[in-house]
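Note to self: keep these together.
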Amino acid sequence: MVKTLSTIIFLLFATVSQSKELTFVVHTNSGGHLINSRLVAKHLPKYLKEKVVIKTMPGAGGVVQANYIYNIAPKDGSVVGNLHSRMSLVWLIGGKNVNFDYSKFTWLGSSEDGRKGPIILWSKTNSDEFIAGYEGKTKYSPLKFIQNISNIKMKKIYGYKTRAETRLAFEKNEINLIINSLAGVNTIAKHWLTSSEIKPLIQWGMGVKRHDNFKNTPTLMNFAKDEETKEMVKLFETQSMMSKPFVAPPNIPKERAKILQDAFAKVFTDPDYVQDSKKAGIEVSPIFAKEAEDISKIISANKSSKLLKYFSR
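Structure:
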């Protein structure tokens, strides 16, 4: 009887343990980040033995989600999320709605190393009459920074809800200038690469280095004429160091952090995940937890109030 009772208790405990649920918070309802997050979430249960539930939380270009993970989500390791790559830049600039410290998240890694591929300003015009579009209404818009550095004349249209909406406006010729990473184009809009009317205008994310496929496309760093401007471009480019970063809230139990970090590392190198990503056109060039944390600390150590003036118009 005692043995039977012990067995029942063990089975009940095992059932409760195996029913643990991980909430995976995604900052967007569409695009490459959502596709990649779904693929990661698909393969995580293999290594966590937990049910993974996707929850989308768009808003303020990813700030709403970042604030939620940092301040509101339980600190027990039951919530993880994919930060927008530009959250490093948002934190560097600061603002009353930025209620997180970029370096203090529990870093789980990034499935893509942004230093291996550029972000590109794509153009659909041969004139200098540029109409650029971007998501939301934000002082953190990279269009402002690019305009200030390169002196390109552009009319900026904000308010698109998602990158998908901005991309549709670009396809329909409502705008003729758009920012998209090469990795994102490979995932969502591969036809741009062979289109006769869509051209790369400026690339950034790799310093002065130009991507092998865009040898004739200037880098943003090429427009920097003095040391301060070069330093500001370097800070601006920190947003591309980790293209698809994953985090948990700060101060979760160390044991749980290690479990999550190990699980994400295993997913990033899982042959099935890599194959699924390849089918979706998503780059897999992982940065693991320790390096991700080190990168976040380097970024945080270089916070500068000078950066704000480059987003002034």
